[in-house]
Protein 1
Amino acid sequence: MISRLKEKIIYGEKSSKSITRSAMLIATMGIASRILGLFRDRMLAGKFGAGDTLDIYYAAFKIPDLIYGLLVLGALSAAFVPVFTSLISQERKKEAWRLARTMLSFGILLLSVVSVLLFLFAPILVKLIVFGYDAQKQAEIVELTRIMLLSPIILGMSGIIGGILNSFKKFFFYSLAPIFYNVGIIIGVLFLTEPFGVRGLAYGVILGATMHLVVQVPEVVRCGLRFIPLFDYKSKQLYRVLMLMIPRVMGIAMTQINLLVVTILASTLEPGSLAIFNFANNLQSVPLGVFGISFAIASFPALSGLWAQNKKEEFISKFTGTFRKILFFIVPCSAMIYVLRAQIVRVVLGAGVFNWDDTTLTLSALGIFVMSLWAQSTIPLLARTFYAIHNTKTPFFIALFSEVVNVGLALFLIRDFGILGLVAAFSISASVNAALLFVMLHNRIGKFKKGRIATFALKMFIATSAMMIVSQIIKHSISDDPFGSARTFLGVFTQLITTLLGGGITFVVIGRILKIEELSHFIVVLKNKLLSKRPLAENERNEVGGI
């Protein structure tokens, strides 16, 4: 049985996989990665608190992240994967591998040149980005930025390799990569900060990026990649990638500009504001990564393949079924995070020099973030659905409008609400982005069956409301302290777990009574994965019908 399971997980099944099962694998690895990420944040918070040191660390990420977002994510999510998948599905593997080699060759060259240029101009750029910081903090940010400029080159190679594994639906090693990335950063916190100071954090990032790459190499070699440098600038497939990539890069540029605006404005606020933003964002990103991104990643190759084969009805069913599954997980998660935001912050971050002022600001930011978690979690799927139909312009213009809303609101709200104003602007603009993407996608492909949407939404509202009521009763029955007896780790942890269990059971019971299809489907899949040796029956493997 062990060898059979290993064959299924690592090398893929010969029969068709459902998106749900692929997403469960990605989500499982995602949970492990996010747990490590939370452990990483706890160590950072306990060792440095929400102060100058972490402001420097997070600010130093901005320029490397800008390169990675524009040149790697833009090429992969919008361009390379759909084109590569299309070639594979058409049995044009020779062309596919030539494209992969060309992308790797040009990618490494371009990322290296850009990184060298940014290394040289880092002092000027840092002064523009964090003009609110003093000269000493700016100098330290420059030093860390220059070290971390190696990471986009390494992650660029890893990202293209991951895109290849994605196209072949080889999700196991692809999903392991973020775990190793976090392990590298944790090693930096534990062992490199003592001898190297804050530079040890940057060295940990480089170690993590290297591990992110190395873990995927053996599997992509098994898939057939033989990396011999190839600069085929006349390739028609490369031209297709570039044409798809340009609007996506512009769209990501809007997102990166937003993050730069957050950094710029945070540099004018109290020390630790940028750290607070990142801590709260990382906490709410756990369900976002586990469910929203996992389902989007798992569905993307299937959506690209169905559209390439002109199977529109199956394409719509695949998208709508996946969309509902994301909301099924995200809506109750958002509600529970909001109810238990104080307990979550204290359990995850409440150590060392992370004090009560840091706690109250972080839990307030977290509460605002989760208001838009439904939007943040569906945007990856909505955007990838547009990319699958080779439409990158619509997501770009929607992202452009949303970022204008974001920046405008941030400039207005920061005057009265400080860092919480930045978080509120982020949440509102994300909601606008998701709503517009959904409406435009409906107009483009149609047939979303609005009646089923309304029924699903009503059932989820009832089940989630009941869960929140029961959770509040349990939480306050344990303690009347508004912070949930958060004076000791054991006390707040007990309250957190007890309330989660009570709320979760309530949601499941009400969901079964209301016959929420996604819940029934999830239970069937879970039972067969955990309790049964037999494969899923055909009717059990089928996706829940479209909206």
Protein 2
Amino acid sequence: MAELTTLPGSATVDDVVEVLERDGGVIVADLISPEVMDKIWNELSPYLEATPGGSGEFVGRQTRRTSGIMGKSPSSAALLTEPHLLGAAEKLLRSTTRYFVGDEHHESEGSVQLSATQAIYIGPGQKAQALHRDDMVHHRTHPGPESQVQTLYAGTNYTAANGATMVVPGSHRWDDDRRPDPSEAVPAEMTRGSGLIHLGSVFHGGGTNITTAESRLAISVSICRGYLRQEENQFLAVPAEVAQSYPEQVQRLLGWNVNIPFCGWFEMGDPHVLLEGDLSNTRSATDLLPR
């Protein structure tokens, strides 16, 4: 049975991408400091404590979930801009296209954006989640180009006993007719602050929590191609007045950006001007082509 590779936090983005392309998932140790994880927990725990377990087997009846993390936890920006996740996403998801506009032959490189965020708190007695591919939201055909990359950050220690995420290494290369078998999955055991970075095409699922008093916390952050619809509606999850509090890099990852050419504009211009205070809806249109 294939195992998951664990890399040190000092690993390069190229190291991460190499393992992702081979296995579909990789654990990277110590991505987020204990101090930042403490802040994120303090900001999210009131929401998790007030949220009941899920109403279906897939989401988990002993599993509490809270989404819209960027709108609830200012400290979670560190999870979105973590260099290994963002670097791997940019290497694997940015695509270059060529096209004519009249006689001019243009070449554009696509951007990446935040797709979805969620804190997942698996309680004692929770059964294993069905193995699945997260990129099903984008109606992907396999094998084929990746549509998303994500990290499950360990908010607590991840163990086989408390419901560590189960991953099927190599399953990102399967076609759409091969059914995953739980016997092929291995637990992503890791320490708090570490992360499981995985492709949207790899089969995985929450594990069984056989403990009597230990919950397992994961914080999921996924990044997709800039021209795809975001899985989570970030404009509802993170209102404009909240988005304004973040650095421009985060704002653009949230979706206040144009994927060149002409994808995501407002009044045929850069939507980021709204966060800068320019609310005009009678502005001059812009040529949103490569410069």
Protein 3
Amino acid sequence: MLLSNITIYQLQVLNSYVKPGDTGLAIIASGTTCNLSMDWSYEYNTWIYPVEISDKGHASVQVEGMEVGLTLGLKNQEGTLKLSLMDCGCYVKDLSIKLDGGASWVYQGMIDAFEEQIGSAVENAITKNLGEGILKLDLFLQSLPKEIPVDDDASINVTFVDNPSLSNSSVRFDINGLFTARKKVPIPMYYYKNTLPSVLCTEPAKMLGISLDEAVFNSASALYYDAKFMQWIVDKIPDQSLLNTAGWRFIVPQLYKKYPNDDMNMNLTLSSPPILKISEHNLDATVYADLIIDVLEADQVIPVACISLVIRGSGSVGIAGNNLVGSVKLNDFSMSLEWSNVGNLRMYLIQPLMWTLIQTVFVPNANTHLAKGFPLPIIHGFTVQNAEIIFSRSKVTVCGDVAFGES
């Protein structure tokens, strides 16, 4: 009997588990049932009767109690994840076969004689299909993007930097994770050596752990600084009187005397990228900035003084969908006069105004941008659920479960 065109059209798995090991990722499925269709043909002749007997038809096969096992290899290949089938096996416990076509009713009673051959053909067909499926999955992994867009200016580099590390309960992937300019403008790179466990989840049952080194946050800081995003001109504040020289006449008398009742604005420019430090309990940020006080006279913008600021704040992070979002609050700041065209500025009188300006204008502006967040490296179609944020030395770890569904 010759079997051909074996087609699996239904497969149900009762039990399965995945077991990472030193040599690969083992996947075992048991109690599996599947339905197949195939074509059969039969030829018989002997030297006694020179007449050839042949027949052909179609068969439906139901497989019960099948066990399938495969071992997958994972490695880094030029920044992408390479998946290979290292071993694959299939065992068919019980077959139910129904022949159609030809004189199938004649052969149905004799089918036991061919059951072993049919079972072997089914095992080979399923093994072949699994191999083809792994090749398709490998092509999918190879096609995953190497960058995740954040906005028009920035992307996150998600290329793999080492081979996956397998333990008895997890698979660990290390990716670059740094922010890069979409316009390919060179930015300072932050290199770090990972000497700590990458993921520190408090609940082992969590399906996913993503550990973000502070180098990731500092690369974002450097990128947006170099893209000239970190400067603001403030011409509207809650107390608008502070943007007129009349509001400063008792604080900087010479300013009001030189430019009476002229409008003003504040030009804040960061002098270097903000520096972020992550500890076991906090995410701290230090910002170095220059605040230039401008007077608006007729069609002219006249710089009259420059104040150097060192702003210290603390941040918090959370999860919104598949994005890591954040917020920052002001802890304290220090200031010094860089230069002035309106005499000496008494900094102790200006400090309350600076506090108000930072607290009511710059912090809310920063939080508006931080609330948008940036995407975590999650495969499209999966969503993070029940997320937990854990701080450790130089790292923020996101632990959670994942569910399939459009994100």
